[in-house]
Description:
alpha/beta, Rossmann fold, 15 helices, globular, binds nicotinamide-adenine-dinucleotide
Amino acid sequence: MSIEDVLPEAGQDGPLYAALTQLDDAAELIGLAPAIHQKLRKPKRVIAVSIPTLMDDGSHQVFTGYRAQHSMERGPCKGGLRYHPDVNLEEVIAGAMWMTWKCAVVNIPYGGAKGGVICNPKEMSQGELERMTRRFTSELVEVIGPEKDIPAPELYTDAQTMAWIMDTYSMQKGYSVPAVVTGKPTVLGGSLGREAATGRGCVFAIREAMCRLGLPLTGATFAVQGFGNVGRWVARLLEPLGLKLVAATDSQGGCLNPDGISVEALVEHKVQSGTVVGLPGTDRITNKELLALECDVLVPAALENVIHQGNAGDVRAKMIAEGANGPTTPAAQEILNDKGIFVIPDILANAGGVTVSYFEWVQGLQAYFWTEEEVNERLEAIMVRAFEEVYAESQARNVDMRAAAMAVAVGRVAEAQRMRGIYP
Ligand code: NAD
């Protein structure tokens, strides 16, 4: 039996198919050695565990959890943990692969991982979630750790989940190990600046891109799809640079004012009403309309596959900065290229989050904590350098920024693998 016998099929429209296609394209572009290419097409390790959990009614439910570790060539694995009924192995493996490229493109010393538990957290009590998380952690205790694999929050997991994982792992080791997870509460060693980090990193990338393209910042317009953590911080931090928010949406719809929307007023309105819809002085707009809006910068910061073959032709923004993971399908990217729209791809545009997670890990290992200013300065240095490297690659190879980011990332992992050799 080979690893293929247990790995899921890469279904045509699925995330694994997309991840493998991107890798194959990058391999062709950079002339990747076949042995390394074949190795990188497969995860290093996939773990499936049963998680028997005591429920509040006294019964036991056995959940299934996964952790995929794609690559450890450049350092320990890093990636989120998702609690959702739709978690599946295909998505987990693809996610691990994307994390490898994201860490490599910003040149932080990690490989990629991803994990999840098939469960419905909305129907579970805090006690049930805690017991499930602790049992899941103890099943993973031999394969995670500060030098092996460092989980982080993702969909429906949060700082509390990370605190339970850190505590369970520490109890089993017999001493406190804060660096086993990132995204912890600050009282347990979480990094200052983490909450805003993904949005902040995205703003650094947008600023660099606008400078390269000769687009003035002052008076430039932008629209945000998804006014959650990433979208809200992008808006908050673009405004002081002189850009003007003209539209924003969330799952209920959106608001538009071509003359500009005050970001803080919108944040306050969303806190009060639960949605961006209905901000006084704005018109209602749909998500479809937002994507077709004429503006300088469009920031999809909600879901994957929102810009696709069917609507990419309608996009009128000059630039797209992918705050979300995978918002643009490969077919849409080709249409955007034909229209001359500059896309800052997800593995670069939203890498600020994992970069500050890396800072949290470094601070935890040293037990020495930085100020928020230090965190933000170091984040800026990494994002600016990564943007410059990807932009230079795109110019040198005459390819779009996504292909360039993949070429840089896969090239770095491949070079690490080449120098180490394939054991034994
Ligand atoms: P979030 O849950 O805080 O916000 C998501 C927002 O999207 C919410 O405002 C929600 O109402 C909105 N939304 C949901 N469905 C929508 C729809 N159909 N149309 C428009 N808006 C919709 O999540 P987040 O942390 O901001 O993450 C957003 C995206 O960024 C995800 O793709 C995530 O994987 C990616 N990302 C997040 C981070 C991070 O650090 N938070 C890091 C890297 C990538």
